[in-house]
Amino acid sequence: MNPHLDERVLTWGPPEAAVTVLAVHGRGQEPEFMRELATRFGPLPARFVAPAAAGGSWYPLPFLQPLSGNQPHLDESLAAIEARVDALSDVVLFGFSQGACLLAHLLLTRPRRVAAAVLFTGGFIGPDPIKPPTGAELDGVPVVLRSIEDDPWVPAHRVVETGRLFEAAGARLDLKIEPGTEHIVTDEACAAAADLIRRLAQL
């Protein structure tokens, strides 16, 4: 049994909304964190679906550690998010911190067609470079990547490297690393996410 699939799922926003957003929280957080973060986007024509991680974490060790140390937890988490994505149509992936790492790794190792991705302070998982996907799943997919230059948990160079992999896979990348030393989401990042969701709603 996948422990994450037994956890609760928080939803908000109109069910008939033009855009569905899968919101994935970070380590030690709950879906309510993502709901609070999304309030900073302002009113949006979007329905949000936020699954909870079992024990408040998607994998136990820091994301730059060898992949083997995070198994089988990582594969369970990827499978749980895959199941959530497959149950939705044309979904926007939205993650912060550990949630952003999980979503970036999912798209770069198990690519699937999504409407867009908004990843705050995260990058692909593991110490070694990975190859970008070669299929057509990410062609033209908008990806917003945001982070802080001296974030205490997520090195800026890994976020930049992750962005390069998305570009190599054909995604339309919007990357910005802002100055600072805190593990936060800036107003600019929220504005970029909200703008993307509004544009998708008009398609």
From TrEMBL:
<dbReference type="InterPro" id="IPR003140">
    <property type="entry name" value="PLipase/COase/thioEstase"/>
</dbReference>
<dbReference type="InterPro" id="IPR029058">
    <property type="entry name" value="AB_hydrolase_fold"/>
</dbReference>
<dbReference type="GO" id="GO:0016787">
    <property type="term" value="F:hydrolase activity"/>
</dbReference>
<dbReference type="Pfam" id="PF02230">
    <property type="entry name" value="Abhydrolase_2"/>
</dbReference>
<feature type="domain" description="Phospholipase/carboxylesterase/thioesterase">
    <location>
        <begin position="88"/>
        <end position="197"/>
    </location>
</feature>
<protein>
    <submittedName>
        <fullName>Phospholipase/carboxylesterase</fullName>
    </submittedName>
</protein>
